[in-house]
Write a structure and sequence with these properties.
242 residues, 18% strand, 37% helix, Rossmann fold, 7-stranded mixed beta sheet, two-stranded antiparallel sheet, alpha/beta
């Protein structure tokens, strides 16, 4: 555990510390487990860090309303304590938004983003309902419905505590398009054409905003495209990370 802003932050670190450091950040309402299947194949030659973001997994809820900047500061403080500089950040959805903002402020070697949220999205269907529908189509997760119900979208607006509701509203309404233009590191965007949480058009908008960015599109895949085509994702990451 790591203490940040008087709360406990859960994380795991494993792999080869002499290799490149890959830091994985999960999406809203998720936890470390949602990133392990992507992270594990890289542990033989890389230093792996996966974080339960504040209010998620086994990390404590914040005692005040966090902005996305606070999530960035939390991640940066943890990495500083581990003496990690210039990491490769790999983030999904809200974890992708945190990664984008982090890279606009601090040195990052490379960015890998799975359908990151980055601007205000006006949605009519509850986030939890859409995430669960998407998850049921993901190989492996569709057999773990109880797990999915517990770990995916479990802290969306309807089910969140009062403080997490406020944080969710704050994060959803925070548009970071101006900030992402400051990103200088090579950036890879992976998106599914059937993403109902963050539309695939966002891939091309972000590509136009970030100086050195490329897009990989998975046809007929959802907000969990990175898991639906896990083998392809791992191969693409191996090529990009080097």
């Amino acid at each position: 555990m790591f203490t940040y802003d008087d709360i406990n932050i859960n994380y795991v670190r494993y792999g080869k510390k002499t290799g490149k450091t890959l830091v994985f950040l999960h999406g809203w309402g998720q936890n470390i487990e949602m990133m392990k299947s992507v992270a594990d194949p890289f542990s033989e030659s890389n230093d792996i860090v996966i974080i339960d973001l504040p209010g998620h997994g086994d990390s404590d809820e914040p005692k005040r309303v966090y902005t996305v900047y606070d999530f960035v500061d939390c991640v940066h403080s943890l990495l500083e304590s581990l003496k990690i500089t210039k990491p490769i950040l790999i983030g999904h959805s809200f974890g992708g938004k945190t990664s984008l903002l982090y890279a606009s402020i601090y040195d990052v070697e490379k960015l890998v983003l799975f359908a990151p949220s980055y601007k205000r999205e006006i949605e009519k269907i509850s986030l939890k309902t859409k995430l669960l529908k998407s998850a049921k189509k993901v190989p492996g997760l569709n057999k773990l419905e109880d797990f999915a119900k517990k770990h995916i979208g479990s802290t969306d607006y309807r089910n969140a505590s009062p403080i997490m509701r406020q944080i969710l509203v704050e994060s959803v309404n925070f548009d970071i398009r101006d900030q992402v233009t400051k990103i200088k590191c090579p950036t890879l965007l992976i998106w599914g054409t059937n993403d109902q949480a963050v539309d695939v058009s966002g891939a091309y908008e972000l590509e136009s905003l970030i100086k050195d960015a490329g897009v990989v599109i998975y046809d007929n895949c959802t907000h969990y495209a990175y898991l639906e085509r896990l083998g392809q994702t791992i191969n693409v990451l191996r090529s990009f990370i080097g």
